[in-house]
Write a structure and sequence with these properties.
single chain, alpha/beta, five-stranded mixed sheet, two-stranded antiparallel ribbon, 4 helices, 9 strands, pyruvate, E2/Pdx1, CAT-like_dom_sf, dihydrolipoyllysine-residue acetyltransferase activity, 2-oxoacid_DH_actylTfrase
């Protein structure tokens, strides 16, 4: 998470107030790019068949006064971070005010539930049918980790725990693990998201 924190700070300074990137924006983008690398995860169970999607249309859980809604950011794989950020902020505000049209929260190909802002370190998200997966995001915390470059062989790093719930009719454990590896790669080297 240290690399994302640094890149986020640099990009926000360069934005001159036209956007303010959050960690969640990087999570959304990394998820979409991982869906392109592992397209089997960008799918849904529909009756007797598996439907695979071309676009990464990502549902983001938003708490509202009447319960949780999941606005959909469409075509995330082709959007820049500032566009994702501004879209998410707009949709979240409209969701809280009851101003979303049904097509803006029905559908989607992949869900993200982030409870990190509440201090929750780890949880398992419930899948939103017919989607096959829901990514649960926990809070960023500091942990001591092995580091051969340090004198004592240890370093303190900011880490974030995630879990991927998947419908095993569509995404089995090996495919889910492959997707998580791709996601981890983008999160640990966020410059790859800008290419």
């Amino acid at each position: 998470m240290s690399q994302i924190t640094k890149l986020r700070e640099v990009l926000n300074k360069a934005g001159d107030g036209s956007y303010k990137l959050s960690v969640n924006d990087f999570i959304i983008k990394a998820s979409a790019l991982s869906l392109k690398q592992v397209p089997e995860v960008n799918a849904a169970w529909q009756g007797d068949i598996i439907r695979q999607y071309n676009n990464a249309d990502i549902s983001i859980a938003v708490a509202t006064p009447t319960g949780s809604l999941t606005p959909i950011v469409t075509g995330v794989e082709g959007r820049g971070l500032s566009d994702i950020s501004n879209t998410v902020k707009d949709m979240a505000a409209r969701a809280r005010n009851g101003k979303l049209a049904p097509h803006e929260y029905q559908g989607g190909s992949f869900s993200i539930s982030n409870l990190g802002m509440y201090g929750v370190k780890h949880f398992t998200a419930i899948i939103n049918p017919p989607m096959a997966c829901n990514l649960a995001i926990g809070a960023t915390t500091q942990k001591v980790v092995p580091d051969a470059t340090k004198e004592k062989g240890l370093a303190v790093r900011n880490v974030m725990e995630v879990s991927l719930s998947s419908d095993h009719r569509v995404v089995d454990g090996a495919v889910a693990a492959t997707w998580l590896k791709a996601f981890k790669g983008f999160m640990e080297n966020p410059l790859k998201m800008l290419l």
